[in-house]
Amino acid sequence: MVVDAPDDLVVEPSETEKDEVAIINPDQLDNDADHESVPLANDFEAMKEIVLPPLIEEPKILEDVVNTWTVENWRTLSKKEHGPVFYAGGFPWRILLFPFGNNVDQASVYLEHGFTDASSIPEDWSCCVQFGLVMWNINDPSLFQHHTAHHRFTKEESDWGFTRFLELRRMFQQPWEGSTRPLVENESVNITAFVRVVEDETGVLWHNMTNYDSKKETGFVGLKNQGATCYLNSLLQSLYFTNAFRKAVYEIPTADDESIANSAYALQRLFYQLQISNSAVGTNELTKSFGWDTRHIFEQQDVQELSRKLIERMEERMKGTAAQDALPRMLSGKVKTYVSCINVDYESSRLEDFWDIQLNVRGIKTLQDSFKDYIQQETLDGDNKYWAGDEFKYQDAHKGVIFQSFPEVLHLHLKRFEYDIQRDAMMKINDRFEFPETLDLDPYLEKDADRSEPWIYKLHGVLIHSGDLNAGHYYAFLKPNKDGWFYKFDDDKVTKATMREVFEDAFGGEYKMPVVQGRTAMQRKQPIMRQMNAYMLVYIRESRLDSVLTPVTKEDTPQHLQRRLDEEAALREARKREREEQHLYLPVKVVTPETFRHHATTDLTNFDGDPTTDPAAPRYYRMKRDAQMEELVQIIAEDLGQDPKRVRLWIMVNRQNKTTRPDQPIMDLKPTIEETFSRSAGTSRDYSLRVWTEIAEEVDAQGEAIWPTYQGNANGVVVKNDLILLFLKYFDIEKQTLSGIGHVYVSKEKKVEELVPIISKKMGWGEKLPPGEQLQMWEEIKPSMIETLKAKQSLKAAELQDGDIICFQKVPDKKSSGDLLGKTSRLGDKASDEIVKRWDHFDDAREFYDFLMHKREVRFDPHPRCEKENLESFILTLSSKINYDQLAERVGEHLKVDPTHLRFFTANASSGAPKMPVRRALNQNIAQLLNPNSYQHNIQTKADSLFYEVLDMSLAEFDMKKNVKVTWLSEGVTKAETYDVLVNKQGHIEDLIQALTKKLQIKDESEGGRIRVYEIHNHRIFRELAPSYPVLSINDYADLIAERIPEDELEADERDFIKCFHFQADPSRAHGIPFKFLLKEGEVFADTKKRLEKRTGIKGKAFEKIKFAVLRRYQKPDYVADDRILYDEGGNMEDDISLGLDHVDRTRTTRNGGEMFLK
Predict the structure, then answer these.
(1) Of 424 and 765, more confident
(2) Domain housing 1078
(3) pLDDT at 1042
(4) CATH at residue 378
(5) Taking a C-beta distance cutoff of 8 angstroms, is the pair 738, 600 a contact?
């Protein structure tokens, strides 16, 4: 920005002289430039050229107005003065002056609207104005100071201008810039306002976007950016406004799979929300359906690949439906690749489908030129003649591609990102590349193509990338209707767009700067390149516009989708109201006899449970704070189907041992819910009132409940006797379950053994236990403290009180129990049923409580390399104290496989991928396996997940083998597949080869020919491994390559071979798979190259681009000409001489870094 002085700031003042606000304005001009041609301040037409330069947005000028205010008696002016009102664009304006500065030591001058009654200004009033303010000497108009700016004036932003217009000391005391006069002479000066009102064609010119409503202004909504998903947003909006595509997506049947993991359903939801929502829509559900995690959300993926994969996924889901041909018809065209002989009648061709076209940008001016470049013929002649079969032999030929048809909707990907071999990096191409609004594709079609309809296309989408390779932003210009506006879709904002934005700004290349008085407004020696330019274009065939852009109605939307989203919207609205009214309500959690009977673990309930899914969870009531307890009792009684008179609530309190138990009944039901909560100390973690519900078993003649204790009498006095409230739990040895039985009232003076008949009756066993059966009882003090109760001890001596829990069980058969205690289990032993029960079957409630303390749910997934075996994923509840062998037994039992054949792997915490295998160690338990001691490992390992693999052999046998990674070359060096091969650790390379052929199901060496194995390092051959080389000596991190030895090399002398490797520009940047090559005596390199083409499997243009060089240690590459004979040069090729293949590494990571995938 060129400004008058470093302090010049364009700011908005106010009546309270608010702080300065800087407005960065690229259109300001340097006042010091072109002094020779500076006009006089009263030459208003000439001054316009200076103070109202052309704007980069090029808006239409509605009206220019010039108004001069003569300010007199400057030193007597008040703190703030207003100039006379004048009109421009139909609105009143005036100059606002702070003669002595707006909190600065400089004069402050602004332009403001002249409405006298601010309340009469419409809320949405705005006016876009470019203006210049000129202060000039009343006697000498050659002396002036000026500033220029532009602004969108609104009701809220009523004034705009310059807080530091001019220093006060310069105005009065000094001659002005070489003259003999000051600027303000005799306390007077002229201030002229040059006001240019311009058309706000889009409604957002210079808009600050505060409180901007996309739906209200445009009828459309945007998409929220999750982090770096703007590229996804622009693509999705483009597909959404291809109405035929949206309709086809709606036709995918998803009623039976309303899962966010279903990408088709997630896309349907997104499209429908874009239709009905009044605000920006999130894409979280869709990216989750892709299988993306946080890493992928913050990586900019390749848009073209994402587009292809998304469309492919939708096409797959449409198969077998009414829309199965919709996408190919809409988005797929046909292209013919051909080789046509020049001198004989022979042509070879192949017809292929295409879904998009990639077009070159570098060095090409227009889209039409890029199409010409795409179909340009290549002549095959000389050494590059085409083999036309045995009849015609080698022939001169033309090779190229030609289009046979184009789709209704044509996606053109402009190659803005290309690999730069000089920089060894991907670079963005910002060259100017023009594209038309109407595109005729007829010239690029085959002569006999169907021309029954014109191949005229209309532009309907321009996707933009702004920035460079490493950091940038994506947005789109889309034309939703056949005739209408282009709109700019920039994440959550949607605005109207001008044709200049869609075309000129999107072409790229240099900025065309406005010219002022023979020079550009921005004085720069180097051209400024636009960083924003089109990278994808969407054209629609003109004759199919009506069908492609057919309106999408509510009837086109799946009914189940509408219903589901309406329900979700209603639920969100209810939750919103609930949040707004939350301060008026208090949650109440109620433990009932029914929830206690379903409770299968420690304490009386799990207060964090969800009552909608867990019958043991406490019932939840949302009560008004000022409601009386009596109302709560009424609601609970009605819910339980009981008479309210028979329902009594007990306050539950937190004990010091961190359990929650009933403390005493609530006798007075007049207090409010909040008062009761406050009196109960309100210590619950979830800030809720917790109560236990008691149902009276007896009533008197009047129907009033008779309570065993805390019974109220006619005088209102509550009587507390010596009965205590105890809760009973039963541990069923046979079912291995712990369950709530109910509650009892027992006198403190009774002995523990006197509970037996009470329990027996409660259990339905009769008045007494069956002969020969006994009960064991414990007090559940807290989950980690289960104490035995002695039979002869009184309840008082056992320190039992209201709310305590007694757990009981039948005494197990001592003989069977003793047999189990004397045995252990080891993986590999013959396990009996008794051994399985020993660690997974509990005969003592204390053991079961210990299991509950240490139980954990572990998810088991098959290792990715086992995907062909159709193994299941499942979850087991296990004790974290069991060891590796016991874990294998449980998993083996579930999978119905031999536990000795199981191998486990931990899971990476961030990616979820398998890590290293778990080593079998009997002194380690599950907790130690899943949570290693090392802090670093701990944060990288999932604590509730393991991968498993079913081996073909026992783990013990597997440990005797070595896993060797081998890359098998089946077609030169172009097709390389890596395999894990198990070989006996005492074996040799010949055993590795045998195992490899067996795994690949290919012919062994006796039938298919000898196989060589060699080790590579840094993409160069390190050594060839002899058949007798021991497997144990292979480095665990070595890269091994295996291939069939070509027939002509079987009997060749080792001294006639040369080692070959690939590199790019510099031999230190090796890539690909190296190989051995046999040199032949007397063979010129032109013929050697033909054998190299066959040996490598690299064909056509790719091979032609390779440059070959002889490489010697510490020397530069010696590039080989076709007439050289390598055999004569080297004789016996030494180890330090290699043949290098110099070509681009196509396997390098693409510019975006992250892998693109859809799960």
Answers:
(1) 765
(2) 1051-1159
(3) 97
(4) 3.90.70.10
(5) yes
Residue 1042 lies in a domain: no
Inter-residue contact 492 to 223 (CB < 8 Å)? yes
Q: For residues 812 and 844, what is the distance between their CA atoms, to the nearest angstrom?
A: 8
* Domain end point (choices 787, 811, 835): 811
User: What is the chain's alpha carbon radius of gyration, rounded to the nearest angstrom?
Assistant: 42
Question: Looking at residues 395-414, what average pLDDT do you find?
Answer: 93
What pLDDT is stored for residue 301 in this prediction? 64
Contact criterion met (CB below 8 Å) for 340 and 398: yes
Are both 148 and 246 inside the same structural domain? Answer: no
Query: Which residues are identified as catalytic?
Result: 230, 473
Q: 532, 466 in Cβ contact below 8 A?
A: yes
Total number of domains in the chain: 7
Is 985 within the bounds of a domain? no
714 shares a domain with 730: no
Calculate what percentage of the chain has a pLDDT beyond 90. 50
Question: Which residues of 518-646 form beta strands (DSSP E)?
Answer: 519-520, 532-541, 585-591, 619-624
Query: How far is C-alpha 984 from the geometric centre of its chain's CA atoms?
Result: 44
Sequence-distant (6+) residues with CB within 8 A of 748 are: 722, 723, 724, 794, 795, 796, 800
Tell which residue, 681, 179, 219, has the closest CA to residue 489. Answer: 219
Q: Could you tell me the two tokens for 407?
A: 């789709």
86/177 same-domain check? yes
The CATH number of the domain where 840 resides is what?
3.10.20.90
Task: Tell me the average pLDDT across 102-125.
Answer: 87
What is the C-alpha separation between 1029 and 990, in angstroms, rounded? 8
C-beta of residue 373 within 8 angstroms of C-beta of residue 444: no
Query: What is the rounded CA–CA span in Å between residue 502 and residue 462?
Result: 7
Contact between residue 85 and residue 114 where contact means Cβ atoms under 8 Å apart: yes
Residue whose pair of structure tokens reads 């998409």 in the numeric block: 223
Check residues 911 and 139 and name the one with the higher pLDDT: 139
Nearest alpha carbon to residue 401 among 381, 378, 368, 382: 378
Query: What is the Cα–Cα distance from 981 to 990, expressed in whole angstroms?
Result: 13
Q: What token pair was written down for 50?
A: 């200076």
Taking the C-alpha atoms of residue 808 and residue 811, their distance in angstroms, rounded to an integer, is: 9
- Residues composing the chain: 1159
DSSP character at residue 383:
G
Note whether 834 and 928 are same-domain residues: yes
Q: What is the pLDDT of residues 924-933, one digit of tens each?
A: 888 887 776 5
CA–CA dist 1073, 43 (Å, integer): 77
Burial state string for 612-640 with b = 16 or more CB within 10 A and e = fewer than 16:
eeeebbbbebebeeebbbeebbebbbeeb
Residues 650 and 696 in one domain: yes
* E strands in 605-736: 619-624, 647-654, 660-665, 689-695, 698-699, 705-706, 711-712, 718-719, 723-732
The answer to whether residue 771 is domain-embedded is yes
Treating both helix axes as pointing N-terminal to C-terminal, what angle do 263-276 and 559-580 enclose, rounded to 10 degrees? 70
Count CA atoms within 13 Å of residue 316 on its CB side. 9
| Cβ(791)–Cβ(751) below 8 Å | yes
Whether residue 434 is found in the same domain as residue 371 = yes
How many Å separate Cα 701 from the centre of its chain? 69
Of the candidates 742, 726, 730, which has an alpha carbon nearest to the alpha carbon of residue 809?
A: 730
Task: Encode pLDDT of 827-858 as tens digits.
Answer: 334 334 444 445 678 899 999 999 999 888 99
Which residues neighbour 199 within 8 Å (Cβ) at sequence distance 6 or greater? 59, 60, 61, 62, 128
Sign of CA dihedral 946, 950, 951, 956: positive
- One domain for residues 61 and 183: yes
**384: DSSP letter:** G
In one letter, which amino acid is 607?
F
Domain boundary residue among 657, 688, 721? 721
1026 in a domain, yes or no? no
Pairing of strands 10-11, 159-167: antiparallel
What gap in Å lies between CA 1133 and CA 1120, rounded to an integer? 16
Distances (CA, A) of 1127 to 529, 1080, 1085, 1132: 53, 6, 10, 8
Do 595 and 450 have their domain in common?
Answer: no
